[in-house]
Amino acid sequence: MIASVEVIEHLENPTAFLRSITRLLKTNVWRFLTTPSVENVPARLKFLRRGEIRAMDKFAPEHVTPLYLDLFT
What we know:
Blueprint: E1 2-5, H1 14-24, E2 31-34, H2 41-50
Parallel strand pairs: 1-2
């Protein structure tokens, strides 16, 4: 099992991170990943009003890569 809690949004290349996890683990093994949601209603409204991505603004400059669900499909 690999757990990544609130880490991936800090990486410049999250796809490489996900590939590394897949390479390290065998099939049918748990992968646990959390990240701030940038696709929920409050996040979409903020983007519509201000053009800023929630959790990726001046208050969280260490968050460099927003993740969207289509990355995981």
